[in-house]
Design goal:
The structure is a homodimer of 236-residue chains.
Chain A: H1 20-31, E1 40-41, H2 43-50, H3 54-66, E2 70-73, E3 77-80, H4 85-108, H5 112-130, H6 134-151, H7 155-175, H8 182-196, H9 200-216, H10 230-233
The first copy, chain A, binds a DNA duplex (30 and 30 nucleotides) through helix 3.
InterPro entries (chains A, B): GntR_C, TF_FadR/GntR_C, Tscrpt_reg_HTH_GntR, WH-like_DNA-bd_sf, WH_DNA-bd_sf
GO molecular function (chains A, B): DNA binding; DNA-binding transcription factor activity
Keywords (chains A, B): DNA-binding, Transcription, Transcription regulation
DNA sequence: GTGCACATGATTGTATACAATACCGCCGGA
DNA sequence: TCCGGCGGTATTGTATACAATCATGTGCAC
């Protein structure tokens, strides 16, 4: 393991523009499942709440739509995204393609500094679970994967994983089957162990099976989408 | 090979909002290297050219910044992105991770319809090269990869590849070494052959070596970035 | 001649006003 | 009773005006 404490490159990609505060706040609420998929995000409503003009609200909503967290429907408004079963499958296929390899890279590029951050993060996860803060626990659980991708020092891939994790949060909100969030805890712990020892192959395998566990805990049968809008299918 | 002609899912992800025309036009110009990296895109300038208000121009620039084609600097304006050497390497590492596997999937899901489109595309590439339209040829060359990813029927991954191809265009504009674009032609032809025969493993290998060829045709030595702004490094 | 301070001009960030479009309840006719 | 047209209301799309910030060039002090 390297011991150099290179500064962590936590540059939010392209999200620093106008309405950053708003983007962050909404993003947080969505990740913590306080805003559920399908919720309408009215512009006037948000501009009232945050005391900014609709201009910046629109800007923020646009940013979120590019992260695929909200869906913009022309002349109808912004809604928290509702990934379909098909999209859900795709997201986890993509994660299966990217994350195991990234975990391996992370193990190889592990630093003392990063390990400390990772352990602290794990601690925070446990604390949130213990405190019964389900939303916060879920968000941290997702962010754990993002942390790892950042350690791998591939900001481009990390950006993709960030998007995938975000969508995963929505997917979990829609399709979660069991309520056992405990498996997460152990899986993450085991991953940190492997990463700490620089065991890349182990980390890769652990990540792969961890992702598989998540997918199998989802109910992705071809059900008629939760609440589809015929307009979105039968476009004139 | 399947023969069902399922409708191609060419849904532009989240890019249908305001200023779509503008986004398309600018995107085209960037892909064809008519707008070079570092070029400033003034808001008034664009609003004059396209006869729309600055509101929609800003919206379009924001969209492009989320695609990482342009960089938005607060209070200083929008510029066509200048990927660094490091970012260039990351982009092609990501492509190496995603595209070969995707090519394999494409081979497995090939349809008569898709094959026809692919061949037509190849023809267009040849025509552009023959006509000496270097910019157009380059753009089509990139779009070829996107077509394949769409055939693989993984819209999420296809979206990532689309972004990577876009960045690749900028990278090529900055770091291209040789001027032999002919290799592309043969590589793409070979790929289509493999895809047509449903030879997934071959397609995967061909894509891998094709991407490697592109990278080796780049000059990615650690050079002092083309024209950096000290402000971007020494942030107070 | 060099370096700093300030004023001026240009460009972006934000807010507001108006126009276009879609949603929803009502009403009339079959 | 059900379907289709119609108008009011609400919400989004676009344009414009004003405020804040940054770039540039001049002049003065050293």
């Amino acid at each position: 393991m390297k011991t150099t404490a290179e500064p962590s490159s936590f540059i939010q990609p392209t999200i620093g523009g106008p309405g950053a505060q708003l983007v962050a706040s909404l993003s947080l609420a969505i990740h913590e499942h306080r805003l559920k998929p399908g919720t309408k995000l009215g512009e006037d409503e948000l501009s009232d709440i945050y005391s900014v003009s609709r201009t910046v609200v629109r800007s923020a909503l646009q940013a979120l739509s590019h992260s695929e967290l909200v869906e913009l429907k022309r002349n109808r408004g912004a809604f928290v995204s509702q990934p379909t079963v098909r999209e859900a499958r795709e997201v986890f296929e993509a994660r299966a393609l990217l994350e195991p390899r990234t975990a391996r890279s992370a193990a190889e590029r592990m630093t003392e500094d990063a390990l400390a951050r990772l352990k602290a993060h794990l601690e925070a996860e446990h604390a949130a679970i213990a405190a019964g803060e389900a939303g916060k626990a879920l968000r941290l659980s997702g962010q754990f994967h993002i942390e790892i991708s950042h350690i791998a020092d591939q900001t481009t891939i990390a950006g993709f994983i960030e998007r995938l994790v975000a969508r995963s949060s929505l997917i979990i909100a829609l399709y979660w089957k069991r309520q056992s969030a405990l498996c997460e805890k152990h899986a993450h712990h085991a991953l940190v162990e492997a990463l700490a020892r620089g065991q890349g192959a182990d980390a890769e395998d652990l990540m792969k099976s961890h992702l598989l566990d998540i997918v199998t805990a989802l109910d992705l049968r071809d059900s008629p989408a939760p609440s589809v809008d015929l307009r979105d299918i039968l476009k004139p």
